[in-house]
User: What shape does this take?
Amino acid sequence: MAVCYRHPGRETGVSCSSCGRQICPQCMTPTSVGMRCPECSRQKTQVRTLRSLGADPVATYALIAMNVLVYVGSTVAGGGLAGRGRGDIIVKGGLFGPAIHDGHEYWRILTSGFLHAGLLHLAFNMFFLYILGGMLEPALGRGRFVALYFVSLIGGSLGALLITPTALTVGASGACFGVLGGAIAVAMDRGIPIMQSGLGTTAILNLGLSIALPGISIGGHVGGLITGFLAGAAMVRFGDRRGAAPVIYAASVVIGLALFAGAVAVSGRT
Assistant: This one.
C-alpha cells in the first residue's frame, strides 16, 4: 500500500488528481475533478484527467474506422443504409445462439461486434466510442486499450447469449460499454468522483435506456460493462509494475478465451 507523501506513516490509496502524489485524508482537498494535494489545490495548474494522461487515441480511431468500413461492406451486400433488410453479412455474422451451438459458427461471437443494423445504430455506438475511447486509451495505453476492447466485446457476447440466445444480435455496444466500465475503473483509481465526472450518470442513463427501450440487448450491455470494469481495474492495479505489460496481454488472451468458451457453452440455451 502506498503512503502519503507528507505523512509517510499513513497508508492511502488516493492520489492527487493533478500531480499524482499519494495523499491521506488530512491532505485531501475535494475539487470538482477529484482530490488534490495541498500544493496543487493552491495552484491554477492543469488538472490531470483521463483525457490528459497520454497521446492521441489512435487505436480508438482505428476501431471506429473498422466498424464504419464493415458497415459500408454490409450495406453494399444488401444490409440497407437505413437498416431496411439485414443482408447476408448481418445474417451470417450476427450473434445467434442456435447457429453457434448447432452450426459451430463460432466466429459470430466476434464478428457480431462489428456489425450494425442501421446508420443510427452505428452513429450512436461510434460517438460513444469516440468520447470514451478518447478518455480511456491515453490512460491505459494503446495496447491495453485494444485488449480491454476485445475482451469486453466477447464479454458482451457472452452476456447477450445468456439473456437472449435466440435473438439475432449485432453492434459494438457491448465493447463500448466495456470501455465505459474501464473508464470508471481508471477514474476510481485516480480519485476522480464518478458522478461528478459524468461517467456514473452515463452508465445509469444508458443502462436505463437498455431496459426501457425494445430491441436493445441488455445482456450485451451489462456483460460488456462488467467485463470492461474488471479488466480496467486489473490493468490499473498492476499496470505500473515492472514487466507488467506482457503479463497483462497474456492474461487478456486467457480471459478472452475463457469468455469465448463460456459464450459457446451457453449458446445452446433456449
Observations:
- The chain is about 60% helix and 0% strand.
- The first helix runs from residue 38 to 41.
